[in-house]
């Protein structure tokens, strides 16, 4: 009989094993065998005593004879399982009957293991050790499950808080932004205003449009994360759409002394006009932030057999090769000691562009413009 288990077990807190058997010789054999291995053993000579002993000493394991006068082993096991703390305590049945019916009844009543008499001391120790190890593993798994459940609940709470924040941004900020844009348009319609007022009103209108795009980008990014960004495709005149973008961003370009050139060919494509317009506007806006004074931001197109490519080019600082995938991640900016400014969006613009293009079944990439950067949007026809 191996003695290794007693060396590993804390002698000050030995595991308690309840042995219930109406045969005294069997009880004593189990007691001596298990005590030699460092266990504390509690004995009971029938089922009723066993149930009472379980309630009193809360054992870590129960060894239960099947055939006993009065309350037999099956009934005792069912009662133990129904008691506080009894659901997960391993129960090992002892029986001289080696048949399927007895085995099935043992399992049905809540048994964890099944030993046939005469039981060898070594086998008894191994079965008890195995039962206790399985119980510890089950407890650890339950603890891990509870920890994972708490983490899942925390993530769900954060997701709901994010959705609430998104709803706040969309519904509560969109109205004042639209009001700012409306007042700017009213100022532009006034006659007799100075050139300075007109320029300021145009700038306010452009900035309001930009802020509105940022709000809508946030909404669409949330939709994409939930798999709900579905383009509503219609026949769109690409050159006219790009022209609208150029007119909208002309005040911003003028304030930076940059020109926007529309070199898009007259072509019609089947896309979601709003998503594509905001995609191009975000790319042009990004290009304007990095285009040198006196330069030109160019929007061009190329019709292929199965796709249309749209390119937005600037002659700014460009984007290093190793950053061309990362730049589409949220809140990514490129900073370098040798670069006079950062390159990237204000957080969500380029992320939205990637999601909107991919929702159309297309892809977006970055090419060298020599100098500067060229964002290429490829959309299937």
- H/E series, N to C? HEHEHEHEHEHHEHEEHEEEEHEE
Computed structural class: alpha/beta
- What is the count of β-strands? 14
Please tell me what the overall shape is: rod-shaped
The separation of the N and C termini measures 79 Å
| CATH class value of the largest domain | Alpha Beta
Low-confidence stretches: 1-11, 336-342
Radius of gyration: 38 Å
Tally of contiguous helical segments: 10
Largest sheet: 5 strands, parallel
The order of strands across the largest sheet is 2-1-3-4-5
Helix fraction by DSSP (H/I, runs of at least 4): 40-55%
Q: Would you mind describing this structure in some detail?
A:
About 50% of the residues lie in helices and about 20% in strands. The chain is α/β, with parallel strands linked by helices and about 375 residues long. Helix 2 crosses helix 6 (about 120-190), helix 3 (about 45-55) runs parallel beside helix 4 (about 75-80) and helix 7 crosses helix 10 (about 350-360). The chain folds into three domains: about 5-120, Rossmann fold (3-Layer(aba) Sandwich), CATH 3.40.50; about 155-225; about 230-380, 2-Layer Sandwich (Heat Shock Protein 90). The chain is built from ten helices and 14 strands. The protein has helices at about 5-10, 25-35, 45-55, 75-80, 100-110, 120-190, 195-225, 240-255, 275-290, 350-360; strands spanning about 15-20, 40-45, 60-65, 90-95, 115, 235, 260-265, 270, 295-305, 305-315, 335, 345, 365-370, 375-380.
């Amino acid at each position: 009989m191996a003695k290794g288990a007693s060396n590993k077990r804390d002698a000050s807190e030995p595991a308690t094993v309840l042995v219930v058997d109406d045969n005294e010789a069997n009880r004593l054999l189990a007691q001596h065998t298990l005590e030699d291995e460092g266990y504390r053993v509690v004995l009971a000579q029938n089922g009723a005593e066993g149930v009472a002993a379980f309630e009193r000493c809360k054992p870590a394991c129960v060894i239960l004879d099947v055939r006993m006068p009065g309350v037999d082993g099956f009934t005792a096991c069912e009662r133990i399982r129904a008691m506080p703390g009894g659901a997960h305590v391993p129960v090992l049945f002892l029986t001289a009957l080696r048949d399927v019916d007895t085995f099935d009844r043992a399992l049905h009543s809540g048994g964890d293991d099944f030993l046939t008499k005469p039981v060898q001391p070594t086998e008894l120790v191994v079965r008890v050790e195995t039962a206790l190890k399985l119980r510890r593993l089950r407890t650890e798994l339950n603890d891990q499950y509870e920890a994972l459940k708490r983490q899942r609940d925390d993530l769900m709470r954060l997701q709901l808080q994010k959705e609430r924040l998104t709803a706040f941004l969309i519904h509560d900020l969109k109205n004042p932004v639209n009001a700012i844009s409306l007042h700017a348009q009213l100022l532009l319609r006034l006659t007799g205003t100075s050139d300075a007022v007109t320029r300021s009103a145009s700038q306010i209108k452009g900035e309001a449009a930009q802020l509105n795009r940022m709000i809508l980008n946030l909404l669409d990014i949330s939709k994409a994360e939930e798999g709900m960004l579905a383009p509503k495709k219609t026949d769109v005149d690409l050159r006219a759409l790009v022209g609208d973008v150029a007119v909208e961003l002309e005040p911003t370009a003028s304030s930076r002394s940059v020109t926007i050139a529309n070199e898009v060919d007259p072509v019609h494509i089947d896309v979601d006009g709003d998503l594509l317009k905001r995609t191009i506007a975000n790319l042009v806006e990004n290009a304007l932030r990095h285009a040198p004074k006196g330069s030109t931001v160019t929007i061009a197109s190329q019709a292929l057999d199965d796709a249309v490519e749209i390119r937005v080019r600037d002659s700014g600082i460009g984007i290093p090769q190793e950053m061309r995938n990362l730049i589409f991640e949220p809140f990514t900016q490129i900073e370098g000691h040798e670069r006079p400014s950062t390159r990237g969006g204000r957080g969500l613009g380029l992320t939205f562009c990637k999601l909107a293009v991919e929702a159309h079944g297309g892809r977006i990439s970055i090419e060298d413009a020599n100098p500067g950067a060229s964002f290429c949007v490829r959309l299937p026809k």
